[in-house]
Write a structure and sequence with these properties.
Elements (H helix, E strand, L loop, with lengths): L1 E5 L3 H12 L3 E6 L10 E4 L1 H9 L3 H7 L1 E2 L2 E5 L5 E6 L11 E4 H16 L4 E3 L1 E9 L2 E8 L5 E6 L1 E4 L6 H6 L7 E14 L7 E7 L2 E7 L2 H5 L3 E10 L27 E2 L2 E2 H6 L5 E7 L11 E3 L14 H18 L3 H24 L5 H9 L13 H15 L3 H9 L1
The chain binds flavin-adenine dinucleotide.
């Protein structure tokens, strides 16, 4: 069976590797001519690390990213709301990694080129349109360099082409642009001193003003320094989002005043912002869940299928889980249409639930509760939110996103 994948992002490349391991002939077509290590930090949750481990990538991840030790939530005064261990330290059978998105992409790209052969990762070609005929699919690709077009025939096409997916647009021409939450994110990295234990991730504030930071470079950690990925987020007026382009650079003066007083004994946020070289602006966007992802031999995967707010560290992890599920379905069904329907039935409801939970702040709900109940701060968080309530929010989200510890431990022992 020949399978085409449109998009060499985290989802598309993971799928290509997983399909290759199951003996399929795969070709990947990527719109960008020279894929580069773009983006800033990203988290890989233990269930996604398990899948990348099965593709032989665990050592590369451990050499590159930080094995996340804990996740901590604070209010806007820097007072602790909740903290929990993460990954191996929490007793999971697999670690969680905080990693540079571009470096993760390069790890996947190198592995895919080595496994499939470099000629099977075709760059500078974007999917324009796809259709199904009796026993196969036709996909029209356009060369970015000169607009030249050619048609590829195959048994299956998977569109892993991100939030502006061409196949999704072809199927749902009236869907329009992504849905804007009225919040903007400013993302950057700063080389600095390690904070907390040098392996932890923190979030402070509430849904209208938030700051998130975590270290993402294991080589720098070994030198006693930290490459700190950070995200400042603010609610903004107006309904028209700026371009959702991951490379849109803006001056710090657009947002830094809002965080001027956010200096606490263990972190100096204004200094982190000041020492960053480049800051990238991105609107908080997602799309409504779809009623179907698979039509016959064509399907969607990753952000093309379920773009979600970057809340709960889930976008890349869910794309990786999609890849595993789809590869298993294709390997387990002689009929590709049945395989794609199975994948749709398995993954679509789960990811739709995460999209909707993230609109309600996902696990970050604890920060919003603290803000609503004690905007001036508290002596002890348990005066305003019971431990059981905090625990229940954390547990519920892990179950929803598929990484509760009991379940992963069971999978490991199965
Ligand atoms: C440049 C870039 C930077 C990012 N930076 C961050 C970040 O810093 N932090 C973070 O949390 N998330 C970031 N993301 C998003 C994150 O990587 C995704 O949410 C997640 O990993 C899901 O991956 P995906 O493979 O489904 O989609 P994506 O990562 O969006 O990958 C889609 C791929 O498809 C390609 N493509 C698009 N249209 C076509 C087409 N018509 N034909 C063929 N190929 C096409 C794109 O060039 C891209 O390589 C970034 C995404 C991109 C594209």
């Amino acid at each position: 069976m020949r399978i085409l994948v449109a998009g060499a992002g985290i989802g598309g490349l993971t799928l290509a590797l997983a399909l290759h391991r199951r003996g399929f002939e795969v070709a990947v077509f990527e719109a960008v001519a020279g894929p580069r290590a773009l983006g800033v930090g990203i988290n890989l949750l233990p269930h996604a690390v398990k899948e990348l481990g099965e593709l032989g990538l665990l050592d590369a991840l451990a050499d590159t990213g930080i094995e996340t030790a804990s996740l901590r939530y604070y209010n806007k005064h820097g007072q602790p709301i909740w903290q929990e261990p993460r990954g191996l330290l929490a007793g999971y059978p697999w670690p969680q990694f905080s990693i540079h998105r571009g470096e993760l992409l390069m790890i996947l790209l190198r592995a895919a080129r080595a496994a499939l052969g470099p000629e099977r990762i075709v760059t500078g070609h974007e999917l324009a349109e796809a259709s199904q005929h009796g026993s196969g699919i036709s996909a029209r690709f356009r060369r970015r360099a000169d607009g030249g077009e050619h048609v590829e025939e195959a048994d299956v096409l998977v569109a892993a082409d991100g939030i502006h997916s061409a196949l999704r647009r072809q199927w749902f021409p009236d869907e329009g642009p992504p849905r804007f939450a009225g919040r903007l994110l400013w993302r950057a990295t700063t080389v600095g001193e390690p904070f907390l234990d040098g392996r932890s991730m923190f979030m402070a504030g509430h849904q209208d003003q938030k700051f998130v930071a975590y270290p993402i470079s294991e080589p720098l950690r070994r030198e006693g320094k930290a490459l700190i990925n950070w995200i400042a987020e603010l609610r903004v007026d107006g309904q028209t989002p700026p371009r959702d382009d991951w490379n849109r650079q803006v001056p710090k003066s657009v947002f830094d005043h809002a965080f001027a007083g956010w200096r606490w004994p263990w972190i100096d946020i204004p200094a982190l912002i000041r020492r960053a070289e480049a800051v990238y602006e991105f609107p908080l966007v997602d799309r409504d869940p779809l009623a179907c992802w698979s039509r016959g031999r064509l399907t969607l995967l990753g952000d093309a299928a379920h773009p979600m707010y970057p809340i709960g560290s889930n976008g890349a992890s869910q794309a990786i889980l999609d890849a595993r599920c789809l590869a298993d379905a294709l390997a387990g069904h002689a009929d590709p249409e049945a395989a794609l329907a199975r994948y749709d039935a398995e993954r679509r409801p789960k990811t739709a639930a995460i999209v909707m939970a993230n609109r309600r702040n996902g696990p970050e709900q604890v920060m919003q509760l603290a803000e609503e109940r004690a905007p001036q701060g508290f002596a002890d968080v348990h005066d305003v939110i019971a431990h059981e309530e905090l625990q229940a929010i954390a547990d519920r989200y892990k179950q929803l996103a598929g990484f509760d510890k009991a379940r992963l431990t069971q999978e490991k022992n199965a």
